[in-house]
Amino acid sequence: MDYRNLGDTGVLVSPLCIGTAFRSQENEEVCVRVIEHALDRGCNFIDTALYGEGISEKVVGRVLKARRQDVVLTTKIFKTLGGNPNAARLNRINIMSGVEASLRRLETDYIDLYLLHTYDKDTPLDETLRTLDDLVRQGKVRYIGCSNFVAWKIVEALWISGEKGLASFVCTQSQYNLLNRVEIEPDIIPLCRQFGIGIMAYSPLAIGLLTGRFRRGQMPPEGTPWSKGENTGLSPHKYDIEAALDEFNDRIIETLIDISRRYEMTPAQVAIAWILDHEEISASIVGADLPEHVDEVVDGLEWSLPEEERKFLDQVSQRPVVRKFA
């Protein structure tokens, strides 16, 4: 497997990061096997958070007991467990208690990459960054970053860290796929290129829509988030299946299927190859629910998207730019 730099840190990570939300997998033993299989296939990058009220971190912790040094581990902080008023803030109280709780669930004494899960408008960014800097100095966290931040908030964070000598963001985690390009292409990708920030692209297959396994007008497979009505993955809004598979998006999926047939690949492999063809992307986060899902995406890494097919996908999926300033 060819590893990539995580931004300008010098840390090498697999181009596939194993996401552990397990939206369609409730059997914990299967979840463990998925993670172990991914590590056996060469993936060294794991992403988790407070998914399932902390179950995700506990599952990851089980796997990492004997393999901690082999993994670059990412988790996130925003909402924590408990009903106290500070349980959904990025203030010092919640971050300090949140990291300790994550370390216990993960059964480790350090987190490689600690991300702010979203922006907290009610806590001064200066306070949040000073707290993260303390965690880095204490050795509980190696690197810090953010998730779901708009570009100008990332710039503000970089400025505060630079002015005050604090640990600085090295990575951002944002949704990026062929159905949702406008969220990061206009501003965040150029920003990350300029400042050497790595990008972790989540929902690369749009919660399964880009696998080509169901099309416009068809019922989604049983056991998927779409069949359960849990279709919250296509930000910035929640969509129903009819809206998500409109004519524009269905044409993109049709194009993926056509390309995959030409090269004897799968639509999922083509969709991820398109993402990884962007040099700014450090890793694509893949939410595999079965070991065979891991095999599909890892096997696809042996193939590179031809330039003419990349240009065709760019053209088919191009939407008008909508800039976000809040």
User: What string gives the helices and strands in order?
Assistant: EEEHEHEHEHEHEHEHHHHEHH
- Any low-confidence stretches, pLDDT <50, length ≥5? 231-239
Question: Shape from CA axes?
Answer: globular
Give the percentage of residues in beta strands.
5-15%
- Tell me which CATH architecture applies here: Alpha-Beta Barrel
Count of folded domains: 1
Could you tell me how far the N terminus lies from the C terminus, measured between alpha carbons in angstroms? 39 Å
Overall SS class? alpha/beta
Tell me the total number of β-strands. 10
Mean pLDDT score, rounded? 91
Q: What portion of residues is helical?
A: 25-40%
Q: What topology, given as strand order, has the largest sheet?
A: 3-4-5-6-7-8-9-10
CATH homolog superfamily: NADP-dependent oxidoreductase domain
* Largest beta-sheet details: 8 strands, parallel, barrel
What's the helix and strand layout?
Blueprint: E1 4-5, E2 12-13, E3 16-19, H1 28-40, E4 45-47, H2 55-64, E5 72-77, H3 92-106, E6 111-116, H4 125-138, E7 141-147, H5 151-164, E8 169-175, H6 188-195, E9 198-202, H7 225-228, H8 241-244, H9 247-263, H10 267-276, E10 281-286, H11 291-299, H12 307-316
Parallel strand pairs: 3-4, 3-10, 4-5, 5-6, 6-7, 7-8, 8-9, 9-10
Antiparallel strand pairs: 1-2
Quick overview:
The protein is an alpha/beta fold. The chain has helices spanning 28-40, 55-64, 92-106, 125-138, 151-164, 188-195, 225-228, 241-244, 247-263, 267-276, 291-299, 307-316; strands at 4-5, 12-13, 16-19, 45-47, 72-77, 111-116, 141-147, 169-175, 198-202, 281-286.
